[in-house]
Amino acid sequence: MITVFSGKCFFALGTTERCRSGLTTPVPAGFYFKDVWKSFVCNTQQLNSSQMGNCLKNKIVYLLGDSTTRQWFEYLEKNVPGLKRMDLHTPRTGGPLMAVEMKNNIIIHWRPHGVPLRFSKLLITNLHYINDDIDEIAGDSHAVVVFTFAAHRVFHPLTFYVHEVAKIRQSNLGLSPTSTVNIVKKFRESREITVHNIFQSDWYMMQLNTVMREMFRDVNGVIYLDVWQMTSCHYLSENIHPGPVIVANEVKTFLSYVCPA
Question: Which residues form the NXPE C-terminal domain (predicted)?
Fold first, then answer.
C-alpha cells in the first residue's frame, strides 16, 4: 500500500476486506476523496437510494442513543425510497420516532437513551434506558441494533459511565450473535478541547470511548463502528452534530456492515 501524507489525512489505496465484526481500526482509518470516505478498515460501499432500500429489505432497525443517531434516522428517512415517518404524536427532536416502508417491509425506530438527557420536553414514559430497550428486542435475522452512549454523559464521573455501559453489555449478551446485526457507534462528533471544561473535551470523550470499546471487546458479534476519524478528518468546522456529508458517509459505512460486499 502506497501512502502519501497531505494536510489532515493520509491518502492511500482502500481495502477489499469484507465489513464484519472483529475488525480493528488502524490510524489512519481512511481518507476523504471528493467527500467520499475511503476506509482502511473494510470495503465500505457508496450505496444509492434504491440500493439502501434493498439492503434494508425486511429489516427492523433500532437506532438508540442521542441526537447523532437521530441524524442517521433523518438521513434514512430522506434517502430510502418510500420510507415515511409515522405520526407518534411525539416531539420531533425528542422522539421516539418511527418510519416505515411497506413495499420492502422496512421499519426504523429511533429512541433517546434514558436520563441524564438534555433534550426538549418529552414524556418521562418515553424515556427508556438502552439496556431495557435491548432486553425487549427479539434478536433474529431481521433485527439491526445500533446504539451510541456518551454525549450526555460528559458531565458525570467515569465510574458512573462504566456502570451504565456494563448494564448495556449484559443486555447485548442476550442477543443472538449469529443473526442480529449489533453495532456500537463510537462517539466523537467534533468537540473542541477546552481547558475550562475538562468533561466536554476530546480527552474525556476518548476515555469514554475506551471504556465502551473494552467493555464490548469480548462480546461475540458486536461491531464497534469508529467514526472519530471520519469527523476529525473532514474539512467542515468542529460541530457536535456533523454536517450532512459526514452523516451520509457514516450511514453508508453502517450499511456496509448490514449488507457487506
Answer: 37-259
